[in-house]
Structure formats: C-alpha cells, structure tokens
Amino acid sequence: MDAKTTRRGLLKGGIAAGAGLLAGTTAAKAAGDPAITEMQPWNQMLGDGVDANPYGKPSHYEAHVKRRSVEWLTADPVSSVNFTPLHELDGIITPNGLAFERHHGGIADVDPAKHRLMINGLVDKPLVFTMQDIMRFPRENRVYFLECAANSGMEWRGAQLNGCQFTHGMIHNVMYTGVPLRYILEEAGVKTNGKWIMPEGADASGMTRSIPIEKALDDCLVAFKMNGEALRPEQGYPLRLVVPGWEGNMWVKWLRRIEVGDQPWHHREETSKYTDLMENGKARRFTWEMDCKSVITNPSPQAPILHTKGHTVLTGVAWSGRGTIPRVDVTLDGGKNWHQARMDGPSLDKSMHRFYFEFDWDGSPLLLQSRAHDSTGYVQPTKAQLREIRGVNSIYHNNAIQTWYVNEKGIAENVEIS
Amino acid sequence: MDAKTTRRGLLKGGIAAGAGLLAGTTAAKAAGDPAITEMQPWNQMLGDGVDANPYGKPSHYEAHVKRRSVEWLTADPVSSVNFTPLHELDGIITPNGLAFERHHGGIADVDPAKHRLMINGLVDKPLVFTMQDIMRFPRENRVYFLECAANSGMEWRGAQLNGCQFTHGMIHNVMYTGVPLRYILEEAGVKTNGKWIMPEGADASGMTRSIPIEKALDDCLVAFKMNGEALRPEQGYPLRLVVPGWEGNMWVKWLRRIEVGDQPWHHREETSKYTDLMENGKARRFTWEMDCKSVITNPSPQAPILHTKGHTVLTGVAWSGRGTIPRVDVTLDGGKNWHQARMDGPSLDKSMHRFYFEFDWDGSPLLLQSRAHDSTGYVQPTKAQLREIRGVNSIYHNNAIQTWYVNEKGIAENVEIS
C-alpha cells in the first residue's frame, strides 16, 4: 500500500488538507522534554508480577473513570440509578464494571445454586429450571444496547444536566450469551390462548412487565453472561431477560418466573411509571421500542477539547431499537451545515454504533449536534419536533437531538437552540 | 412464528429428536423444592444501592472465575504469565479482568501524562507524541484475538496440563480502539529504504521485535482502549501495538518508541526465544502468523458434565491469524465420526469464534476433539501431523487438535490418542 495514497484518503475523510503537522513534536524539539531525556521509574524497575490480581483492575490513573449518580435524582437514602461514563469510553462495548444500572429494590445478592426459573400460566406443562437446566439449552451470542426509557428524561423541558454521562448515560452495550426464550417456552408448551408473558424478578421489588408473545418468541434471550463472564449482580445475576431494542425496564433482572397469559397485566411499572403522559392528559400505552438516537460524547461538558486549535476528533454513539445505524450527520454550527460522520466498528442489529468526525478546529465557538438515521429510514428528531408531538409532561422516550456549546477555550456545556 | 416449527429446526441442529424433556422439573414435582416454596433473603430485603461500586465487580459467587498461574512454569519469584479461564467464559469477548497476560519485566505502572511515543530511524522527520497528540488522529475499532506463541507449548511432547485454561488460556479476544499505525508513520514520513519497524516497550525489559513495513502499514493499530475503556496496566497501559493475527509477543506493550530500519534487528526475543527449533537443529525464522486452531472449553478437565446423561451442550472457541472461521468439526469418539458444529455470534476477521455442538449423551465415555477450518481453506492438524513436520524441540506454535477424555461420571482429562 502506498502511504501517500492512504494519507490522501484520510484527508478526504474529513481532515482539512494542507493543515500540516497533525500532532506531535519533532524529536529535536522534544530533546528538552524530561519525559524523553530522563529515565522513568517504570523503565528501570521490575514491575509487579501477575499474582496480585487474579481478577484485574484498571490503572490507578483511571480512577476518574466511573459510574456516577445524580444526588437529587432519586429520593432513596442510597441511589437507585447510576450512569455510564460515555465520555470516557470508545468503540461499542461497555465494560461490565462501567455499565449503568437502575434498580427498584436494591441490588439482589442471589445464590445461583438456589435460583430457579419457573414457567407457569397458560402452558401445557408448568416447569421449574435450575441454572444447570438452563445451561443444557442451545445458546446464542448477541450484542445489544440496553437503554432506560428515562434516559435523557430530565432534558424534556430544557437543558439540565451538564455531561453526556448524565444526559445519555442510562445505556450500555454488551455481548450477551443466553438461551432463546422461545426454546424454554416451547419446552413448557404455550397454549393457543397464551398471548402475553409476564417476566418477574427475584429482588425485593418483584419487578414485572407485560410482553407480547410475538416478541417473546422472536429474539428475547434468557441471558446468563455478559461480555463473556457471568452477569454482574446489578445486571441481574444469575439470570436476566434480554428484550432487544425495547426499553430497559422490561429486561427483568434476577429473572425467577415467566407467566403466560391471555392479556397484558397493566402492573405498576407499565401504568403509573414507564408510560408517557401527553398534553391532553392521556398516557401513551405500549411504548416499548427505543427510537433511533445519538449523542456526541467528545467533546462534551465532561470532556473539553484539550488543545487550542487544529486537528480535532469528534466522536459519539448512535443506536436504534428498530435496526442498525447506516448514517449519522454532525453539525458544528447548530444545524447550518451538516456533515456525514464516519461510522466505524461492527454494525450489529440493535447495538450501539460508533461514529467519528475529524475536523480542523479554528478555535472559534461551536454548536455541536449529531443526528442519527436508522435502517428503517427514520431520522432522529429535534427537541422542537418531539415536543410538538409529545408535549413535555413525560420523562420517558426523549430521543431528540442534543446540543453542546463549545467555547474558545474548548469547554463544553449543555444548551438548547432549536 | 410457529413454536413447533422452531423446535424442529433446533432438533435438526444436533439434538437427538424424541429425547423428551430437555431440562427442568414439572412445577408439581418442584413443589417440594425449598428454592421454590420458601422465600429467599433476596426476595424480602432491600439490596445494596449503586454507590458502593462506582466501578463494578463480579458476584462473590464467581470468585472461582479468575486468571491462574502454573507454579512450575516460570522461574521468577513472582509469576510472569497467567491464563484466561476459557472454561468459564462464553461468547467471544474476553472481559478485561480475565484477559491473560505475559510480561518480561513485570507490570509497568506508567503515568500517561509522562508517556511519550517516539518515531525515529529512517523517517523524514523524527517525531515525539504525547497521549493527547495520539488522540488527535483518526481511530478505528476492531475485535482481534491475541495469542501467545507459546500457547499450548507444554503439549508438544504429550498431554501435560489438565485444563483448557492451562493448555489454551494464553489467548484473549477484545475490541481495541486505536490509531492505524500507518497514519503515525506517514506523519513522520517513512524513507524509501525503510523496510522494517522495531516497536519498543517502556517497561524494564525494553521489549523489542522486528516487523516488516508491509504489516505496519496494513492493519496494525496503536491502541489505547480495550473493550471500550483504557488498556489495563498488564496489557500495556497507556499504549500498545496491535498486530492482528500475529504472535502476542510482537504486540509490544507500554509502547514508547518505533524505529524504522532497512533490515530486521534479530533481537533476543526473536532469536533465542520465539523461534521454533527443528529436528535438524536449525530454527524457523519469522513465524509470525498464528495458525488456525480450536479447543473445546466445555466439557473440559476443569468443567465436567454435571448431569448423568441426556441433552448436553458442548462448546469451544476457534481462531486463525489468517482470517475467519467458517467451520469447526467436532468428534465425540476420537475421530471415528465427525459432526459439523454450529457457529454462533459475530464472525470477524482475526477474531475468536464461538462454536456449539448439542448432543444427547448416553452416559458412556467420550473422546472429544474439535477441528477448525479457516477462510483460507487451511484445516487444523493433528498432533502427529504437526510433529511430523516440526519435531518436538519447540515450545512455540502448537496449533494441533486437542483431545479430552470424558468418563462415565462426566469428569474430563487431557489425553493424547493420535
């Protein structure tokens, strides 16, 4: 491959041509840099062996990379929701230690040897499975995003939280290993009048939701692993339901029972909560699918631009509960000009996608937005468009375009412009 | 979708038809099971909140899932290699905390603010980059396996280590985020006589290897993230070279310098080590690519079959430094009969692949083997075939078929039959 050709390809991809040195200092200049001229401790000393951490941890220099809560957001003495630090991540996999969580009765500490999954209701043969039983069914591996219906919920009425971790961090994206739910339901035999299922959690909140049988028999998984290892306790260890593309609350954690019925149950978490109150006082029902959405993660309020001007990498994530993300547009000037972003990494159904836009920053203020398109042709709406249809009474299902203002110093903040 | 049709599809996929109940106990029988009839502590008590673990950890019930060392394998006072617990994992992503590591001077504890990457040698303009400079280049996201050349090295002369963690655990598979090395080399400008690069690590061992310029300009990455978050210290934090499909030792960790030269350096780790001594006393040179290989992870010596007979899930992983894995064959009887395994999960270039074979175990002893085919048409060899060509003097590049013997109780052990 000819290096020059590749470089030209890169320039076409978004970096302004003729901008000269992309980054770095010539070695002659660097001769005065003690990081180059002096030996560092790690060059000279034998480091730790491998025995200290049979289960490894991040570097102590990465202590700032963590899930965070918003103190005023939950009334409990302990927080019941935290947020993924999207601005510190790249690619599309959320590491398990940083995957946000939301619970309604605390993190259940379940003994897998005593955990059971019961299938009952409108089935030919009610069944009870141990974890070992579940491991005897055929398994599948799929990468899916899980987004809380209330993600970006505080932003319905205006720019509120200053950081994409808080505005958009109720999402994670991992590879699940699990048994297709249809295999388990088929084992019990769903009766012809069995039209709905109700998964139930083993935690103190006894979370329940109603899911139509079509979805249950389509792509739902009874999952026991995430990113290769056992589910984390806060993600439902040892068993959770995976409901691809649908709101996170339905992905019942610590899954202990699935009842088959002939109609939806209309339980608490699908009536007084997780429904969208409209302007006319009525609530939308069955708003399960998470619409196409995106956010710029860098730069963002927690992640300023750290140089004065020149080559700058803008990046973010996009997803849709209805398919893949073939395209994301980015604007630097609040929507006057849109540029097609570069998608990178695997494009998987109902998974997070990563986009980049490399540009030559002139050091003047920016109004950044991203706008995702999904594989059905749907385009992410502005806040104004969304409010026009839905009003501002809901805290759920805000998939509107997010705006960051970046000042001359590279500092970003959450603003609203439409 | 008709449940019955799906079930029949499943049966065709490997499970013997007519075997009746796949797993589970009828609810009537389970009525005597206290795990069903009694309330469990986690059903009744508010669990922990989210604040306790801003960076999450596995359940305490998973404490056995960890990297392990082999005491006699390294002479250091502290071990210099540990192994991925493949038998505890599923899917294709290795979680960062469980990714094996091998080092030659301990785990360097590098301060990213003081870390530099220098490009020198046969370039137009020697350059020095800070971590912030690196972050201004365009990035890519790719899932790759990294396998140590010595993986399965103890097995050349016979069945030695009792568990796939030890025989095959010097491999991991993660999503990297990094800058294509060609962008960085192009910035410095490789001279026309620049035909090789020598990456160098910042740890006390100062690891160096020679890599031809064609590979450097093709798919190598200067990576700073794995599975979304910063590289782990033992994986080269803050910067490592990614050399897709090639032996792990070349993926220099704590990457601080890349020299461009006109010939290979023939340094220590590519002459006295990481070369294959043949029967005639000569050593193979430039054995970079990791050949196609596979192993059954369950059942295996550390992971017995836990039921007496009936439906059983066999699973394992396969990979090739030359492409993808379209097919894996499995035998239950030491090679008399081969069955095509079911591949599942994303099939990505130079990445680990997951395979399954579901079968109805009659409770008699098994001789398990897997045999991978890669996208070039190459087929994984038997140990006899490999020894015929390479002899038994090397500890590197053993990609032969592995055999596990499983007795009537489901206990597996490492044996050799060919």
Describe this structure as you would to a colleague:
Chains A, B: GO terms for molecular function: heme binding; molybdenum ion binding; molybdopterin cofactor binding; sulfite oxidase activity. Chains A, B: Keywords: Metal-binding, Molybdenum, Oxidoreductase, Signal. Chains A, B: It holds the Pfam family Oxidored_molyb. 2 copies of one chain form a homodimer. By secondary structure, the first copy, chain A, is of the alpha+beta class. Chain A has helices spanning 3-12, 27-30, 34-37, 41-44, 131-134, 164-168, 181-188, 213-218, 383-390; strands at residues 25-26, 116-121, 127-130, 140-147, 171-180, 196-201, 211-212, 221-226, 229-230, 240-242, 255-261, 276-277, 283-284, 293-298, 310-319, 327-331, 339-340, 342-344, 353-361, 366-373, 403-406, 412-415. Chain A folds into 2 domains: 86-284, Sulfite Oxidase, Chain A, domain 2 (Alpha-Beta Complex), CATH 3.90.420.10; 293-415, Immunoglobulin-like. Chain A is 13% helix and 27% strand. In chain A, the strands form 5 sheets. In chain A, strands 3-2-11-6-7 form a 5-stranded mixed β-sheet. In chain A, strands 4, 5, 8, 9 and 10 form a 5-stranded antiparallel β-sheet that branches. Chains A and B meet through helix 1, strand 1, helix 2, helix 4 and strand 2 of A and helix 1, strand 1, helix 2, helix 4 and strand 2 of B.
